[in-house]
């Protein structure tokens, strides 16, 4: 009975390329999350105090809600 090796090493530069692509992808995801939080914050800031009270929020909670909704 003979042994057959089925594993191979990654080609030269493959791991570096993958790490770079993952880095750029993370930057894109962070920018998207920041923009979503910004849009949410701006939308909530346009509401009146009465409208915010109807949905159970105060002006002081807007930043936390926007931050939590994006992550």
The biggest sheet, with number of strands, parallel, antiparallel or mixed sense and barrel status, is: none
Shape: rod-shaped
Order of SSEs: HHH
If helices are DSSP runs of H or I spanning 4 or more residues, what is the number of helices? 3
Q: State the distance separating the first and last CA atoms.
A: 54 Å
Measured by DSSP, the beta-strand proportion falls in under 5%
Count every beta strand, where a strand is a DSSP E run of 2 or more residues: 0
Q: Could you name the ranges where pLDDT drops below 50 across 5 or more consecutive residues?
A: none
- Based on CA atoms alone, the radius of gyration comes out at 23 Å
Question: What's the helical proportion of residues?
Answer: 55-70%
Write down the overall mean pLDDT: 88
Strand-pairing-aware structural class: mainly alpha
Q: Secondary-structure map with pairings?
A:
Blueprint: H1 14-45, H2 49-54, H3 62-70
Helix pairs in contact: 1-3
Briefly, what is this?
The protein contains 3 helices and no strands. It has 71 residues and is mainly alpha-helical.
Textual characterization of the structure:
With 71 residues, the chain is mainly α. The chain has a domain at 33-71. Helices cover 66% and strands 0% of the residues. Helix 1 packs antiparallel against helix 3. The longest helix is centred in the middle third of the chain and has 32 residues, at 14-45. It is rod-shaped, with a radius of gyration of 23 Å. The chain starts with 13 loop residues before the first helix and ends with a helix.
């Amino acid at each position: 009975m003979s042994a057959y090796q089925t594993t191979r090493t990654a080609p030269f530069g493959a791991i570096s390329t993958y790490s770079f692509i993952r880095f750029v992808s993370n930057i894109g995801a962070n920018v998207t999350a920041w923009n979503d939080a910004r849009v949410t914050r701006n939308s909530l800031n346009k509401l009146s105090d009465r409208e915010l009270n109807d949905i159970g929020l105060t002006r002081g909670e807007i930043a936390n809600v926007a931050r939590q909704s994006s992550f």
